[in-house]
Write a structure and sequence with these properties.
The chain is an alpha+beta fold. It has a domain of about 230 residues: FAD/NAD(P)-binding domain. The protein contains 11 helices and 19 strands. The strands form 3 sheets. Strands 1, 2, 8, 9, 10, 11, 17 and 18 form an 8-stranded mixed β-sheet that branches. Strands 6-5-13-14-15-12-16-19 form an 8-stranded mixed β-sheet. Helix 10 crosses helix 11. The protein binds adenosine-5-diphosphoribose.
Length: about 375
């Protein structure tokens, strides 16, 4: 069989791209390694920034994607126990983001694509990409046996561990990896959510608390990777660390239902294209969770790629040739923002000089209008100006 575009992966990048192509009347097939319930239940990011929301608005998908999603307003930063509130949308000239858990976004995009007659194949195993510099073919296997799809273009939206990026010859890619030297111990607990998303900053290290429904919270505690495994901490120790770092001795505890560790790493592969293959989202770059840009970058890549592929299939490939450069500019811009934010709120290596720099950065945010507006601008997400 054949298709204009084969999209590999049904995460935020692949599903955004598939829906945008469908709206443009471009025939695509989406191949996803996992089954539907796995994809719909995977919990990860939670914030759609203002720019990401606009992408769905422009595509006429706002009702499907954003219905009922609360707007994100205040962010509380608590420095050594002292609260400071940031009204992010007000600082960004009214550009608010939405609280959209990744699994909700995925469920909605999946439903919309299928309702529009979209071709999405779950449990596609052994996906392999061939002849990417001439006439591409994608092969895969499912319960019915092996399949082959001829196509004009392949969109590699299969995440960091997918098959697309490794299909590019190694000497065609430059990769950048950065280890921030910070670990997060994260627990899900039956504990009342905070009034606003909350981050605790101080010499004891970073902690955070975010709502996960009316009776649950997700907590984060900075730890030093390699030195210890906080998953072995008794619950009492976890609550004690959280109470100190969030500056709230009365913080109510509760049953801990999930324990995980996250190491803060960044990665970028350049260029995001090889022949007729175009990478989008985590397949091309990963970013730390600070600033909540991972899902938003995936959506922004998909938006640029959908327009570029549509134009190319109609005879004009200029935007497709520019795709990688355009997306890498935003990627590096967001990597810098995420690193900037990370350095401001973490105690890195207990280094007193870095601690004073972080304090200066924090104070500037609350005393300098231009600095606060620049922060809020990045939180809202940026339109690239050439
Ligand atoms: N064949 C087919 N599908 C694959 C393959 C493969 N070989 N490998 C991976 N996949 C699928 C995965 O099962 C997953 O559903 O590709 C999808 C990739 O989705 P994500 O990893 O969510 O990546 P992306 O769509 O780029 O979204 C990035 O995810 O990691 C978070 O914080 C990140 O929020 C950001 C978002």
């Amino acid at each position: 069989m054949s298709a204009d575009v084969v999209v590999v992966g049904a995460g935020p990048a692949g599903l955004t791209l598939a829906n945008l192509l469908q709206r443009n009347g471009i025939a695509c097939v989406v191949l996803e390694a996992r089954d539907r319930s796995y994809v719909e239940q995977r919990q990860r990011a939670g914030v759609l920034d203002h720019y990401g929301g606009q992408i769905f608005e422009r595509a006429g998908l706002a009702a499907e994607v954003l219905a009922g999603a609360p707007v994100e307003r205040f962010l509380e930063l608590r420095y050594e126990g002292k609260p400071h509130l940031l009204d992010v949308p007000a600082l960004a000239g009214g550009r608010a983001g939405w609280i959209v858990p990744q699994q909700m976004l995925v469920r909605r995009l999946l439903g919309t694509f299928l309702a529009g007659g979209g071709d999405l194949r779950f449990e596609a195993r052994e996906v392999a990409l061939h002849d990417l510099t001439s006439a591409p073919r994608v092969t895969y296997t499912d319960a019915a046996g092996p399949h082959e799809i001829e196509c004009s273009y392949v969109a590699g939206c299969d995440g960091f561990h997918g098959v697309s990026r490794p299909s590019i010859p190694e000497d065609e890619l430059t990769t950048y990896t950065f280890d921030h030297g910070i670990g997060w111990y994260t627990v899900l607990a039956d504990a009342p959510p905070p009034r606003y998303p909350l981050m605790g900053i101080g010499a004891n290290g970073f902690a955070a608390q975010f709502a996960r429904g009316p009776g649950a919270s997700r907590f984060y505690v900075q730890y030093r990777p390699g030195a210890e495994d906080p998953r072995a901490w008794p619950d009492d120790r976890t609550w004690a660390e959280l109470r100190v770092r969030l500056g709230d001795p009365g913080l109510p505890g509760g049953a801990i239902t999930d324990r995980e560790i996250v190491e803060m790493r960044s990665f970028v592969a350049e260029p995001m294209a090889y022949g007729k293959l175009f990478l989008a989202g985590d397949a091309a770059h990963i970013i730390t969770p600070m600033g909540a840009k991972g899902m938003n970058l995936a959506i922004a890549d998909a938006d640029v790629l959908a327009d570029a592929l549509t134009s190319a299939l109609r005879g004009d490939d200029a935007a497709l040739r520019a795709y990688s450069d355009v997306c890498l500019r935003r990627t590096w811009d967001y990597q810098d923002f995420s690193r900037w934010f990370t350095e401001m709120v973490h105690d890195i290596d207990g280094d007193p000089f870095r601690r004073r720099l972080a304090r200066a950065r924090f104070d500037r945010l609350f005393t300098n209008q231009a600095a606060a507006a620049a922060f809020a601008d990045m939180m809202a997400g940026v339109e690239l100006v050439s």
